[in-house]
Amino acid sequence: MAFGRTFSLFSAFAMIPTLSAPAMAQDGGALFKQRCMMCHSVTPGAKPGMGPNLASVGGRAAASTDFKYSPALKASKLKWDTATLDKFLSGPGKLVPGTRMVISVPDAKQRAALVAYLATLKK
Question: How far is CA 85 from each of CA 9, 36, 50, 98, rounded to the nearest angstrom?
Fold first, then answer.
């Protein structure tokens, strides 16, 4: 009987549609405005604020823009690909001890949406 409930519950979750990439990026844009925009700009050429400008962040080397990065991030040799952005946002200080970024995004779906949004930012 418990198996039947578990199976039914699993079946219900399996039928939930997943968001398309454009929809996920749109949700990520809304999250970015709520949670990130107070520190980060995404306008190409804009001066950085409390955090670096994230225009064209996808694929670039960490600490590679005109911003005063922490020595830890400068030494990290990270490249901002999807997996690294996800891991960094889940716990910046865990991935790069000594980073000045202290805000994390513990929810995996929200991180995925934010990363999808960041991937859309071009120069």
Answer: 32, 14, 19, 17
Backbone angles phi, psi at 79, to 5 degrees: -120, 130
DSSP state string for 27-55: HHHHHHHHHTTTT---STTPPP-SS---T
**What pLDDT sits at residue 20?**
72
Q: Other CB atoms closer than 10 Å to residue 17's CB: what's the count?
A: 6
Nearest residue to 59 via CA among 40, 80, 37, 76: 80
Taken in order of first residue, the domains within the chain and their CATH numbers are 17-120 (1.10.760.10)
The whole-chain average pLDDT of the chain stands at 86
The residues near 85 (Cβ < 8 Å, ≥ 6 apart) are: 57, 58, 114, 115, 118
Higher pLDDT, 51 or 16: 51
> Tens of pLDDT along 81-95?
999 999 999 999 999
- What local confidence, expressed as pLDDT, does residue 98 receive? 97
Q: What angle, rounded to 10 degrees, do the helices at 82-90 and 108-120 form?
A: 130
